[in-house]
Every structure is written in structure tokens, then in C-alpha cells.
Amino acid sequence: PACVWAVFWGWVGPGTSKPCFSARSCHASLAYPRACSRHASGQSRLLGGPRHFMKWIDTYGPYKRVKGPCTEFQLMASTGLEDAQLLRQGAEAKVYMGRFLGQQCVMKERFRKTYRHPELDAKLTSKRTLQEVRSIMRCRQAGIPVPAIYHVDDAAGVIYMSYINGGLTFRDHLYALETSGESPDRLLAEYGKYLALMHSCDVIHGDLTTSNAIWVPEPGRIVFIDFGLSYTSSLAEDKAVDLYVLERAFVSTHPQSEALFQTILDVYRASWKNADAVLRRLEDVRARGRKRSMLG
User: Fold this and answer.
1) Span 157-166, mean pLDDT?
2) 239-278 as b/e: b if 16+ CB within 10 A
3) 243 and 164 Cβ atoms separated by less than 8 Å
4) Which residues are catalytic?
5) Angstrom distance (rounded) from CA 270 to CA 197
6) 222-266, pLDDT tens digit by residue?
7) Averaged over 17-36, what is the pLDDT?
8) How many Å is the Cα radius of gyration of the chain?
9) One-character DSSP codes across 160-226
10) Pick from 41, 7, 47, 10: which is nearest to 26 by CA?
11) Which of 2, 8, 54 is nearest to 29 (CA)?
12) Distance, CA of 236 to CA of 257 (rounded, Å)
């Protein structure tokens, strides 16, 4: 077979038949589907090169994919959801578990909204899918534990990412520590450190809750998930609102959680030089929240 990456990525620009990255530019004959040396950079862009991947998204994201020779790679992209197992459905997306090139993976699909105009829905789906991927890749580049991105089909609104095996949600692990009488300080410090790192690279998660992080016992770390509402911003106000959302999540799911959340804030302040400005703005956000609660 030909180079699997070159076969699959048959991109064409709008209004032209000239391929930007197609099988016709690769004449490698390989014993099994894999990337040839010429297109090895394409593989690294997808599996481990955040800078190259973000540049690739900006360059080729608006283009559409055209059908090429059938490969395992292409079949997974086109029929993987039908054969996958539905794990969970939210208001914006469905999450499946399946396989991608022989590896277990999670597929997140932003499903079509029939109440929106089809063209508007397609544009919003593509834009939000790419924004989620950019946020994940920016976090990965900064060293924050997040799922690895395997493949993105922005036209269909599907993201293929690594499956986090054997983990508990942050909320469940926190409950387990409290029940056993163990100190949760290490868990909270880990969360605060990576949250400060996330805000330092201007990524706003948008939905920080104790269910959107997974504790993986081996090697003992937190993995942040569900960046569907994420965006980038350098404003202290946006980062303070992110913290406020997390605080409200703690209050609603963990009784007497003031000390727990304060531990996260203390580590957050110690881990980032600009944290004081965000925490000062958090007080203003809290005041607005209390006023809104009193007035209904």
C-alpha cells in the first residue's frame, strides 16, 4: 500500500482541484500501512508535535477532505462511529469508545443541531471543534496532562483522542480519600499547579468541575478533559471566572469545601507569578455572584 498518511490527507482548497497533500505526491511502496520517511513529519504533527499541529490546523483546517484510495485509516474516519460504543451524551456532544489504527481511543462527536440553519451549524461545529483541539494542543505543549489527539475531522465535528484507562474522576477520588481518612493535599496541589500552568498559557477551560479531570493511579497524575467550552484569553477577568466556576462546583458537590478550594488557590498563587491579579479579580467576581444570588 501507499503511504497511509499521504493517501488519507487528500486535501483540496475551495474552488480548486489542486491537491495540497495527496497520495499522488507520495510514491512509496510499503509492506504495511504506515508513514513513509517523506511524510513522517505529518505523523509527528498529529501524534506529538503541538507547534506543527497547530500550524497545520490553521493552514488546512478550512479545507475539505476528498475521497482517496480506501485504507484502514480512512475507514476508521468514515465508519468508526457506527462500530463504536457510546459512553456518554451531553448537550453538545456524544462520546464513544472505539479503535483507531489498532489503538483504543475516545471519539467525541459534536452532533448536528437541527434547530440551526445547516450552513450556520456546519460553521459553528467546525469552529468549535478546532478551538477545542487548539486548546488541548496548547496545554499539551505546556506540559499539562491532557488526552493525546490522534485525528480531527472538523467537517464532521469528530475528535479522535487517547483513551484514559483505569482512572477515577477527580470528584470520586476526592471522596475516596475523604472516606479513607487520607489527606487530599497532594491531589489538590496537583490540580492547582496544572491549573496555574493552563492559565499562564492563556487557555480558559470554560467548564472546570470536579468531573472534568481524571486521576490516573499510574503514574499518579491528573488528566484534564472536556475542553468543549474552552478558548484563549489573556484577561484576568476570564481566568477569574474560570476559578469561580470551579469554586461553585466544589460548593455544590463537596460539603465544607472551603478549605479544599483554598488549598488549590494557595498552590495556584505559588505556581504562577501573575496569579495575584487573577485572585484579586476573583473577589470582584464573587461579589457579583453574591449580588445576583440575593436579587434572584
Assistant:
1) 88
2) bbbbbbbbbebbeeebeebeebbebbbebbeebbeebeeb
3) no
4) 207
5) 11
6) 999 999 999 999 999 999 999 999 999 998 888 778 899 999 999
7) 36
8) 21
9) EEE---S-EEHHHHHHHHHHHT---HHHHHHHHHHHHHHHHTTEE-S---TTSEEEETTTTEEEE--
10) 7
11) 2
12) 24
Q: Cite the DSSP H helix spans in the chain.
A: 4-8, 40-47, 50-60, 72-83, 118-142, 170-180, 185-200, 236-253, 258-271, 275-295
pLDDT of residue 82: 59
Would you state the pLDDT for residue 204?
97
In sequence order, what are the beta bridge partners of 105? 98, 162
The C-alpha cell that represents 88 in the structure block: 456518554
Residue 292 banded pLDDT, cuts 50, 70, 90: low
Peptide bond into 219 cis (omega under 30): yes
For residue 231, the one-letter residue type is Y
pLDDT at 127: 93
Neighbouring C-alpha atoms within 13 Å toward the C-beta of 172 = 11
Planar angle of CA 33, 158, 8, nearest 5 degrees? 25
Q: What is the mean pLDDT of the chain?
A: 75
Band the pLDDT of 1: cuts 50, 70, 90.
very low
Residue 248, phi-psi category: left (phi > 0), alpha (psi -120 to 50), beta (remainder): alpha
Query: What's the pTM?
Result: 0.73
DSSP label of 15: T
